Amino acid sequence: MARSPLAEWPLPAFQLNNSFAVVDYSLEAQELFGIPGDFFELLDEGSRQKAERLLKTHGNHKPVELNFITAAGFFLADVYHRWDSDFSLNLVLVPKDAQMAGITAQLVRLRGRLKETDYELLKEKERSDALLEKVRELSAPCIAIGGGKVLVPLFGNLDAAKVEAIRPHIVTQIYEYEAEMVIIDLTAMGTVTQEGASYLESLVQTLGVMGIDAVITGVKPDHAQKLHLLKSELNLRFAASLEAVLSEAPSNK
Question: What is the pLDDT along the chain (253 residues), one digit of tens a residue?
Fold first, then answer.
């Protein structure tokens, strides 16, 4: 049997038919929800009407915050969607900061225990490494949103340690998606250090070599103090919001 194209996605992802039944899903989605059937059954009652309005909208890719129910409790996520056709809808769930903070806290606890004994907690170290990889993916997921565009929403603080962790993941995913434009969204970003600004400079230069345009959205006033020099040095493009970029007419190049 052929492997599902969604199976190895690093985030919970679904493919629905036009009746909103789940026809495909990622392993991350299966770990959270088991084997899903009807998508609306995964949602908290208060999120179902909002989800119905989202899924019936073909031309709007703005994410919507929905509350899901899992065996472990509630799961809050931003949901991105794209219709491939009148009969096929793709959904990607990007966990909110609370989920990433929980994973990070668990990682810290495990590493603290590792200092006490190496032998007894060898298996815990393997689990710790898996959690660290999850933190990296959640810190910078790459989401294909159609039209040759890839969205990279950055979470938490951008510093030297995070730079080293997420850079290979971002560049690899962008290449695999064959992106023509990368939208780097800083809406959920906390502090941008000088090393973080240097990372953005290096990343944009790399994308330029690959022939990919880059746009930065969601810049806050404190981000602007670190990034204003890059705009002139790299001819870097900024936009007021993700919606502004998505509403632009396609390029004729």
Answer: 445 677 777 788 899 988 889 999 988 888 888 888 889 999 988 888 888 887 777 665 678 888 888 877 777 888 888 888 878 888 888 887 655 555 555 555 665 665 555 555 556 666 666 666 666 555 567 888 888 888 888 777 777 666 667 777 778 888 888 889 999 888 877 887 777 777 777 877 888 888 888 888 888 887 777 777 655 555 567 887 778 787 775 554 4
Sheet with 64-70: list strands edge to edge.
22-25, 13-16, 88-95, 73-85, 64-70
To which H or E segment does residue 165 belong?
Answer: helix 160-176
Going by C-alpha positions, the residue among 62, 42, 40 that lies closest to residue 51 is: 40
DSSP string, 45-56: HHHHHHHHHHHT
Residue in the block written with tokens 């810190």:
139
